[in-house]
Write a structure and sequence with these properties.
The protein contains six helices and seven strands; from the N terminus they run ααααβαβαβββββ. It is an alpha/beta fold. It has a domain of 134 residues. Strands 1, 2, 3, 4, 5, 6 and 7 form a seven-stranded mixed beta sheet that branches. Helix 4 packs across helix 5. It is globular and about 55 Å long. It starts with a helix and ends with a strand. 18% of the residues are buried.
C-alpha cells in the first residue's frame, strides 16, 4: 500500500513539473503594431517640412526667354534700312537668308522674332544660317559668288567697341549702348555694308542708331 501511495505522489509531482515548464517556455505576446502607421521617405525624414517639387523645377527650366520689344524694333529697323539702300539688289529675289548668330545683344527668341517679322513684312520665306552654311546647303553659288534668287543679311555685335562717354555723376545710370556691323549681300559685285554702327537707348525706351561708315560693292 505504501508503494502505491509513493508511485501516485511521484506521478503527481512529474505532471506538475511538466505544466510549469510549458508555461515558462511560452513566447511572450506583444501588442500588434497599428496597420495605419504612415511611411516616411528619406527626404521627409531629413526635414518634415521640405519636399522636392520636381514638376515645379521642370516648369521653371522650360520657361521661354523674354522678348524685349525695344531691342527687336532696333534690329528690325536695321534690316529694313539695309533693304532700302541699293534697292536694285532686291530685284527678282524669292527668299532671304539671315544670320544673327553673332548678335549677342538679342537672345534666341528675339532673333527668331526679328527674322520672322522681317520676312513677313516682305512676304518672303527666310533661311536661318551663316553665309558658309547657305553655300554648303546649295543656296548660294560659292564658286561664282552669287545668289541668283536670294538676298543674304547679317548683323553681328562689335564686342570690343570703345566708347567716349561723358562723365557720369554720382547716382546717374550709365546709358545702354551697343555696337554692331550689318551686311546685305547678293553677289561678289552686289553688296552693301553698314560698319561701326552704334546704338543707344533713349529716355523714351526706344533705341536709335548711327552708321559709322558705309560701303558698297
Amino acid at each position: 500500500m505504501k508503494r502505491i501511495i509513493y508511485l501516485i505522489t511521484v506521478l503527481v509531482f512529474l505532471f506538475c513539473s511538466a505544466g510549469c515548464s510549458q508555461q515558462d517556455n511560452a513566447p511572450e505576446k506583444t501588442p500588434d503594431a497599428p496597420s495605419s502607421a504612415p511611411s516616411v521617405t528619406s527626404s521627409e525624414a531629413d526635414d518634415g517640412n521640405s519636399k522636392t517639387d520636381e514638376s515645379n523645377a521642370t516648369i521653371v527650366g522650360s520657361l521661354p526667354e523674354d522678348i524685349r520689344e525695344d531691342r527687336c524694333e532696333l534690329y528690325l529697323q536695321v534690316l529694313e534700312d539695309l533693304w532700302n539702300v541699293d534697292s536694285g539688289l532686291n530685284n527678282g529675289i524669292k527668299q532671304l537668308g539671315i544670320d544673327l548668330s553673332n548678335l549677342s545683344h538679342l537672345n534666341n527668341a528675339e532673333k527668331e522674332k526679328v527674322m520672322k517679322d522681317f520676312s513677313d513684312k516682305h512676304g518672303l520665306p527666310y533661311l536661318r544660317g551663316t553665309w558658309e552654311e547657305l553655300c554648303e546647303q546649295g543656296y548660294i553659288d560659292k564658286e561664282n559668288l552669287v545668289w541668283e534668287d536670294g538676298l543674304f543679311f547679317s548683323i553681328e555685335t562689335i564686342e570690343d567697341a570703345a566708347w567716349n562717354l561723358y562723365d557720369i555723376k554720382p547716382g546717374e545710370q550709365p546709358p545702354e549702348l551697343t555696337a554692331f556691323n550689318a551686311h546685305k549681300w547678293r553677289s561678289g559685285l552686289g553688296a552693301y555694308f553698314f560698319g561701326q554702327c552704334s546704338a543707344q537707348k533713349n529716355a523714351d525706351g526706344r533705341w536709335a542708331y548711327t552708321v559709322g561708315q558705309e560701303a558698297i560693292s
